[in-house]
Structure formats: C-alpha cells, structure tokens
Predict the structure.
Amino acid sequence: MAVTQQIAVDCDGIRIAAEIRGTGSPILMLHGYPETKAMWDRVAPRLAVDHTVVTADLRGYGDSDKPADAGYSKREMARDQLALMRHLGFDRFAVVGHDRGARVGHRLALDNPDAVVALAVLDIVPTLHMFDNVDRAMATSYFHWFFLSRDDGTPQALLRAAPKAWLDSRFRGRSRRPDVIDPQAYAEYLRCFDDATISASCADYRAAATVDLVDDRADRDAGRVLQMPVLALWGDAGYVGQNFDVCDVWRRYATTVDGRAIHADHYVAEEAPDDVADALAGFLATAGGR
C-alpha cells in the first residue's frame, strides 16, 4: 500500500491541507459536504497504484483554513486547489469530485482547461441546472441548499447547537444502509465540523445561490463548456439518479461525457468504493489520466 504523506500548503494566503499517495500521473480528489478528504480513504489507495493521488480539504472544511473574511465562490475555492497542484509541481492533472467538491472541480475545469485533463463528477448535475429545475422533490431532498444559504445567522445557530445531530441527519437521510460511513471517517467529520466550518460551509452554500449562479450564467451565455473528457457517476438510489438523465444533462455542459449509475445513494464513494474505484481507474486510463 502506498505511503500517505500529509501536507499543508499556503495557496495565495489560504492554507490547504492535503494528503499525497502513490506515483504516476496526478489526480486531485475533492470531497463533499459535510465531509473532508477522509471520504476518499477507501478509493484513493486503489488509484494510488498507478497515480499520484492528492486528496485535499476544500477551503472552509477539514484542516484547511476557514477564513471568515474571504469568499467561498467556487471560482475562489478552485483557485486554492489549482495553486496546491502547481505548488506540488503538477501543471496538468485529472480532477475527481463528489458533491461540493465536484462543483469546485467543474469550475476549476471551466476556468483552467489547459490544466485539467479529465474530470469525474460524483452524484451531481451542474449547480445552474439544479436551480433552474427546482420542484417539490428537489426542494424536499435538497432542503439544506435553501436552509444553509440563509444569511440571517439561523443555520449557524442551529447547527452549532447540535452538530452531531445535523451530521447524522445528512448521512442517515442519504444512504441506503446505516453503516455506510466508516467510524474512523465519521469521527474525522465530527472533529472538523467546528464553529468555523459551520460558518464557512454556510458561506459556501450562499455563494452557490448567488455569485456562482452569476458565473455559471455567464459561461452559458458565452457558450463555454467543458472540453476535456467528463465521467459522471451517480447513485441509483439517490435524488440525482432518480430525477435526471445525468449524462444527458452533462452533455449540455461538456463536449465528451460518459457515465453510469452505481448501486448506492448519495455517498457513492463510501457505499460502493470498489465500484467507484474501478470506474475511475478505467476512465483515467483512457482519458489522459495515465
């Protein structure tokens, strides 16, 4: 098994925590909400056999900086990760993201097509498409998008009063079985879900409902789409897989898209790590990731 190296890099004033495994062509892996880079612990070792795998905490999450006076647009969060990879000497790399990390990866690839050779997105369709297709099912399953984006301090106050209850509700409500999240990973998520993360993650969701939509609409109006190969994976039991033709949606945002369902709910990399690792390995072997 590849040795794991823990690092922290100053990325233009924001300290980004990351782990590095393996050797070979580089892959940047970005986590979702309310998680950290630990979500990849069942997948990254498999990919590290053939690749240099960098799993990073997003700005505002895990052990990365959580500035209260900085922005949390996906463009800003993507710049952090680009700076991390350049610091490590990687000018071209593949990106794999789940949930919020996939949204950061989408923006990173759009803004830096010369740097991102391939993009894999797990259990999302683009943010703009989600907001343009709000219905009762979306608002019920994704109620946290609207709750966390409130700017009156209410979500922060409620989450600080019961952080464990909130985490439990996220995992219990979007998993096919109760033991999906590894106990060690869960302990890491709970450790990192402090007051600063609560504030930062709410800022992340506020950005998604405001400035990120401005950026996404500008791309749509200009006809900018992803030019590198895109792989979409989704859980067959989750909201995304049950409510969208996922590949068809992504083909409106990218020129080359492949994908398939994984037998899982939202937390696909933790519920079906072998299936996810196999799908990613095959994609990266043919999409410029090796």
